[in-house]
Amino acid sequence: GAVVSQHPSRVICKSGTSVKIECRSLDFQATTMFWYRQFPKQSLMLMATSNEGSKATYEQGVEKDKFLINHASLTLSTLTVTSAHPEDSSFYICSASQGNYGYTFGSGTRLTVV
Amino acid sequence: AQKITQTQPGMFVQEKEAVTLDCTYDTSDQSYGLFWYKQPSSGEMIFLIYQGSYDEQNATEGRYSLNFQKARKSANLVISASQLGDSAMYFCAAPGETSGSRLTFGEGTQLTVNP
To answer: What span, in angstroms and rounded, lies between the C-alpha atoms of B18 and B37?
Structure first.
């Protein structure tokens, strides 16, 4: 079946640094990628939708300059958390749409900013 | 836009018994679908089952089945013969009307299976 590989699975970074999270679709072309954020014991909140070759669409309240999304190819989308702060510590997970209401999720990234 | 409501923050069930996790939705779309996902403590999202609004029969996938009541706008997940490995967070979700649109998730239900 369809697989989305997400890396890293876990990252600890210092305050003020940037962290890049990658999601790759391994055996299909992901024209649309969704990026979610999840706090402990809460639901997934959509941060942004990225389409290959165009600018991402951010949800209200999400800082586009802080959470940079690049979807340069049909198999790779990246989320960069710039100038990370402790409040950015969270679980980030991507999901690729395959059309026909099929969705494949990455395995998620636990970000801890110290 | 879809709104998904899961009113059970936590549920407990004895091993080998059945459990129903509630999900109600609110949509003005004529055609829609509903998903259930399982999220263990590792964080991955595991697809369990899908129900289309025009499907005539309730969806079933092994021990998982959907009690889909369109008039009541509910799509409850039934897990039969619960296993210890079923302990996880469960999310109900729905996409927008167009294929490939964003998923909106409910608040989730934490299921604990007791031995």
So the answer is: 17
B75 is written with which tokens? 């799509």
How many of the other CB atoms lie within 10 Å of CB of B58? Answer: 15
Q: Which among B50, B91, B103 has the least Cβ separation from residue A95? A: B103
- Is residue A10 a contact partner of residue A110, using CB atoms and an 8 Å limit? yes
Q: What digits encode the pLDDT tens for the residues A40-74?
A: 999 999 999 998 888 899 999 999 999 999 998 88
Distances (CA, A) of A110 to A7, A38, B41: 10, 10, 12
Cross-chain CB nearest to B33 (options A41, A101, A105): A101
Cα(A48)–Cα(B64) distance, integer angstroms: 31
pLDDT in tens, B17-48: 999 999 999 988 877 889 999 999 999 999 99
Contact A80/B at CB under 8 A:
no
Q: Which site among A37, A57, A103, A107 would you substitute to test the B interface, given the most B Cβ atoms closer than 10 Å to its Cβ?
A: A103
| Nearest-angstrom CA–CA distance, A62 and B115 | 43
What is the pLDDT, as a whole number, of residue A101?
65
Closest CA to B99 of A50, A31, A68: A31
